[in-house]
Design goal:
Oligomer: single chain
Number of helices: 20
Radius of gyration: 30 Å
Structural class: alpha/beta
Helix content: 40-55%
Order of helices and strands: HHHHHHEHEHEHHHHEEEEHHHEHHEHHH
């Protein structure tokens, strides 16, 4: 075998697995029967040699297997184990019948378990870092792109065939929903039923001003790639329609079909397997390999956030039966695509800091994935409540509300404090959307100093937007004259407000 294709790391890992398994059996016999069976070490050493030879012939140590995925390597491991079991059965029967078959069985079982765990950790690490899946890149701006073909009407027979196909898929009520928002009879309206990126990529750019994909997003793997590709195919302000079954709809169905106690148990299991596992650091790609990404649980907030992340703006949301139809239009180029997933317990959020520099603020996740891209949409839909936060913010999860009450979401910002991006007391670091609501003179004053972990908000407890501006202006002007004394004063005032006035985050 050529050295170039020999996986040394995997070879030495297998040797390690056998040593661990052999020593485990040896110590077990020693402590259970109080005898030292030195011959076991020799036999197990010979068994290890046989196993490695079989593995060499069956290609376990070929480097290419490191890139083919977890399951091809698992199948190879099972095949090696079966061949080894047959050979060792023959050897133990005719040549070393004095040794218990249980010893060899336990040895190969231990090696198999260790090898599977090792491979799972290895591929989970690769999957979590997306080392095999680099995202596409898009320019920040695009020159104006109008529709390049004239709009014509479909022939009656073609329109009838289209309606028959749609009827079998979404029924007449679904067709009525589409007709209220798009022109199905136009030649520049393209209806798709696909979860394959190739089918979207093959569309001719700027030949359709409306693209409809009726494949539910729950069954699509690589949602962002499909969204971004459709973005590149549409002309300016082109329409896009997608559909999915939301987490909220699934939950209502489960609770409608079962008693409250049973429904809670079913929904919990469903939620863990269909919502949590696909997003965990070490399991999301393994989940996709097992299920091909089908029947995932998606929240409405996440889907809307993905659309805005991929350059769309949402026009309307309509529920018909089990499906939510999202009607959107192309607004801009997609946001910068990065290998990092937008999931996880801890997140980094871009915020405006000193001198208008962008500071990545660490926080504990309290919102659904991609919620960060919905700030303008939520502001337009919900407005602000007392204290400057969004009114009835749908992006915050139930657990997130509890964490915010206890400030658990802000604890990771201590990292920013240690890095020097923030100071202990100061105005909050703001997103671009929030920052844009401030008057220009206060924006300029804010960016003269580092943002803070403990905001002056908890001294005055302002309720309206103007009161928030005045509160921050008073602090910043005082800090500009007497930095240390001002921060010391505000620090103790904040502690007093929290302890004695029971001030809480929201």
């Amino acid at each position: 075998m050529k050295k170039l294709f020999f996986n040394k790391k995997l070879f030495f890992l297998d040797v390690f697995y056998w040593i661990v398994s052999a020593l485990t059996i040896w110590f077990w016999r020693f402590f259970s029967e109080k005898v030292v069976v030195l011959d076991y070490i020799m036999v197990l050493g010979g068994a290890m040699l046989v196993w490695i030879i079989i593995a060499l012939f069956l290609g376990r140590y070929n480097k290419y297997l490191s890139f083919t995925g977890f399951f091809p390597r698992l199948i190879r491991l099972i095949l090696i184990t079966l061949v080894f079991a047959v050979l060792t059965e023959l050897l133990s029967k005719y040549f070393i019948d004095w040794i218990s078959g249980d010893v060899l069985f336990l040895a190969i079982t231990g090696v198999g378990i260790l090898a599977v765990i090792g491979d799972m950790l290895y591929f989970s690490y690769r999957y979590a870092l997306n080392v095999d899946d680099r995202p596409p890149s898009y320019r920040n701006v695009r020159s104006p792109q109008p529709l390049t073909v004239p709009v014509q009407r479909l022939l009656p027979s073609d329109l009838k065939n289209l309606e028959n196909t749609l009827y079998s898929l979404i029924g007449q009520k679904g067709i009525n929903v589409l007709n209220r928002h798009v022109d199905l009879g136009a030649s520049t309206t393209k209806c798709l039923i696909t979860g394959t990126l190739f089918n979207v990529s093959s569309l001719r750019a700027f030949h359709y001003d409306t693209i409809i994909n009726l494949m539910p997003l729950n069954t699509i793997r690589g949602i962002n790639k499909i969204f971004c590709t459709i973005n590149t195919k549409l002309p300016d302000n082109g329409k896009f329609v997608c559909c999915f079954t939301s987490q909220e709809i699934i939950k209502k169905e489960i609770y409608r079909r079962h008693s409250k106690f049973v429904a809670r148990a079913i929904y919990f299991i469903y939620f863990i397997f269909r919502r949590v596992i696909p997003r965990m650091f070490f399991t999301h790609r393994l989940y996709f390999d097992l299920t091909n990404g089908k029947r995932r649980m998606l929240t409405q907030t996440e889907v809307l956030g993905r659309l805005y992340f991929c350059g769309f703006a949402v026009d309307d949301i309509v529920q018909e039966g089990r499906l939510l139809y999202i009607f959107a239009h192309r607004q801009k180029q997609p946001e910068p695509q990065v290998p990092k997933r937008w999931y996880g317990l801890f997140i980094q959020l871009p915020r405006i800091g000193k001198n208008y520099d962008i500071v990545n603020v660490y926080k504990t996740r309290t919102m659904h994935p991609y919620s960060e891209f919905l700030q303008q949409y939520i502001y337009e839909q919900q407005g602000l409540q007392e204290g400057g936060k969004f009114r009835k913010d749908p992006r915050v999860t139930r657990i997130g509300h509890i964490m915010r009450k206890c400030w658990l979401d802000e604890l990771p910002m201590v990292i920013n404090l240690l890095k020097g991006d923030m100071k202990l007391v100061g105005v909050r670091p703001l997103s671009r959307q929030y920052f844009g609501l401030y008057p220009p003179e206060l924006q300029e004053l804010r960016t003269r100093f580092k943002p803070g972990l403990i905001p002056p908000f908890y001294v005055d407890l302002p309720k309206t937007q103007e009161e928030i501006f005045d509160s921050e202006r008073r602090y910043l002007e005082a800090y500009e004259k007497h930095p240390f004394a001002t921060d010391l004063k505000y620090f103790f005032l904040v502690i007093y407000t929290i302890v004695f006035k029971r001030a809480r985050s929201n």
